[in-house]
Write a structure and sequence with these properties.
Elements (H helix, E strand, L loop, with lengths): L2 E6 L7 H16 L3 E6 L5 H12 L5 H25 L4 E4 L6 E3 L8 E4 L2 H8 L3 E5 L2 E4 L5 E3 L5 H12 L3 E6 L20 E2 L1 H9 L7 H10 L3 E5 L7 E3 L2 H9 L8 H6 L7 E5 L2 E10 L4 H11 L7 E3 L8 E9 L3 H10 L1 H4 L3 E5 L2 E7 L9 H11 L4 E7 L2 E7 L3 H11 L18
Helix pairs in contact: 1-3, 2-3, 5-7, 6-7, 13-14
The structure holds aspartic acid and magnesium ion (MG).
Length: 439
């Protein structure tokens, strides 16, 4: 007997039918003898619809009220799910994030979990009930206000709960059969990855792969929580996100019905795990920055003070004749306006010539632990992209990742070309997209 945390995404509980199907699966886990804690997302596109509704009322909703509104989405699905489970003859109780003890920082819309005090959840389990927790929300430790964790945050709720309760595994149920070598919506021949390390999964999530929330993977790595990503629409075996020893422990606790993912994964040992892409960034170029000590520091200090996260940075060699250089960087599109306003204010002190803004860009990243020890990976990646006729605008690397910024229209072609160049294509199509828009 183990403790299993299961998280069901919005497309898995999109309608009454979906809720009943998920309830069956939860009850089956309970009947197999496990304690079950369920984290649920809002039904279907509810969060998007609530966002649109708020926009119709005001272009700038007060953050406190906006969080109140969005958290309602998860309250609907949690209550319906508890009802569906009751209908199947099991006791289930639903809890808001605040009731479940999810304590966060106070920034509305992007709060971070500080601590989880799951006393009531533990009590529900002790009474033999199934606990259902609303994902993506918590309560601020100092302001006592209701907060949300950022889009996709239910994954993080699930892993944080799993960590605080010492769960054997955190199962993330979604609308595809696991983590794939590329988004199957773009590369239909993408292959399922049997097991992926925390660090590779972190890079994928940071590079736009939407399958798991970035902070959920950070949390899992810190607390050694094995994540098992599966589809709620099938019984396929999915992907284990964990380092080998962690998967082994989870399997030994007999909380899984899947074959040994380590044996399965280690048979192949690819150099590259996958190709991720991201269309949520923009690029700003500061043109004609005087080539003097401290200018870059001034520019990026200004952006940091505005709490803007910078991704890639490129500084050209300065022209001998002009003594000036251009600095380009990428950042989240949502912060574009704010960044342009902040930089405009320091135009005279920095003495640059002009600012250019481009949000028609996309980022394509190649990820794999094997690139540490295999030369030529970057060359092969760039070659594939050039053969696809796509121009590279910026490049950045980490130990296990190479990323390029390209024109937005070139993203799909670049992803497919890179996927192909590293022999990641499956011989038969195995990726099924069961639902959801990938939004
Ligand atoms: N419902 C929220 C969203 O759509 C949280 C989640 O699904 O993880 O982003
Ligand atoms: Mg998600």
């Amino acid at each position: 007997m183990g403790l299993v945390v299961q998280k069901y995404g919005g497309s898995s509980v999109a309608d009454a039918q979906g809720i009943k199907r998920v309830a069956q699966r939860i009850v089956a886990t309970k009947k197999a003898g496990h304690d079950v804690v369920v984290v649920v997302s809002a039904m279907g596109d509810t969060t998007d619809e609530l966002t649109d509704l708020a926009q119709q009322v005001t272009p700038l909703p007060p953050p406190r009220e906006f969080d109140m509104l969005l958290t309602a989405g998860e309250r609907i699905s949690m209550a319906l799910l508890a009802m569906a489970i009751a209908q199947l003859g099991q006791v289930a109780k639903s809890y808001t994030g605040s009731q479940a003890g999810v304590l966060t920082t106070s920034q509305h819309g992007r709060a971070k979990i500080i601590d989880v005090t799951p006393g009531r959840i533990r009590q529900a389990l002790d009474e033999g009930a199934i606990a259902i927790v609303a994902g993506f929300q918590g309560v601020s430790q100092d302001t006592k206000e209701i907060t949300t964790l950022g889009r996709g945050g239910s994954d993080t709720t699930a892993v944080a709960l799993a960590a605080s309760m010492g769960a054997d595994v955190c199962e993330i149920y979604t609308d595809v059969d696991g983590v794939f070598t590329a988004d199957p919506r773009i590369v239909p021949t993408a292959r399922r990855i049997p097991r992926i390390s925390y660090s590779e999964m972190l890079e994928m999530a940071a590079c736009g792969s939407k399958i798991l929330h970035l902070r959920c993977v950070e949390y899992a790595r810190r607390y050694h929580i094995p994540i098992h990503v599966r589809s709620s629409f099938s019984t396929k075996i999915g992907t284990w996100v964990a380092d080998p020893e962690v998967v082994e422990t989870a399997r030994r606790a007999h909380v899984t019905d899947t074959p040994d993912p380590i044996e399965e994964a280690e048979m192949e040992q690819p150099i590259i795990s996958g190709v991720s892409h991201d269309r949520t960034e923009a690029k700003i170029t500061v043109v004609g920055v005087p080539d003097k000590v401290g200018e870059a520091a001034h520019i990026f200090r200004t952006l940091a003070d505005a709490e803007i996260n910078i991704d890639m940075i490129v500084q050209n060699v300065s022209g001998v004749a002009t003594g000036r250089t251009d600095i380009s960087f990428s950042l989240p599109r949502v912060d574009g306006q704010q960044a342009m306003t902040s930089l405009a204010k320091i135009k005279d002190t920095v003495g640059y010539e002009q600012l250019l803004y481009d949000d028609r860009i996309g980022k394509v990243s190649l990820i794999g632990a094997g690139m540490r020890t295999n030369p030529g990976v970057a060359a092969r990646f760039f070659q594939a992209i050039s053969e696809a006729g796509v121009n590279i605008e910026m490049i950045s690397t980490s130990e296990i990742r190479v990323s390029v910024v390209v024109d937005e229209d070139g993203v799909d072609a670049a992803v497919a070309a890179a996927h192909h160049a590293f022999d990641l294509d499956a011989t038969e199509v195995e990726a099924v997209v069961y639902g959801g828009t990938g939004r």
